[in-house]
């Protein structure tokens, strides 16, 4: 049988590791969302620059 202190230590380490993984994954998701946003803005700017000036007068 595992002593209570050792079991608590294992539980704490497991919980801490899972929180670290969730934090890293959340950072990854935020970074990818920001990257996609920047790419979309770049595409929209390029599309606006390539349009006919007559179309942009409206």
From TrEMBL:
A Pfam family the protein falls into: COX14
Keywords for the protein's UniProt record, in alphabetical order: Membrane, Mitochondrion, Transmembrane, Transmembrane helix
Subcellular location: Mitochondrion membrane
Transmembrane segments: 12-31
Entry GO CC: mitochondrial membrane
Secretion signal span: none
Bilayer disposition of the protein: Single-pass membrane protein
Chief location category: mitochondrion
Lineage top rank: taxon: Eukaryota
Name of this chain's protein: Cytochrome c oxidase assembly factor COX14
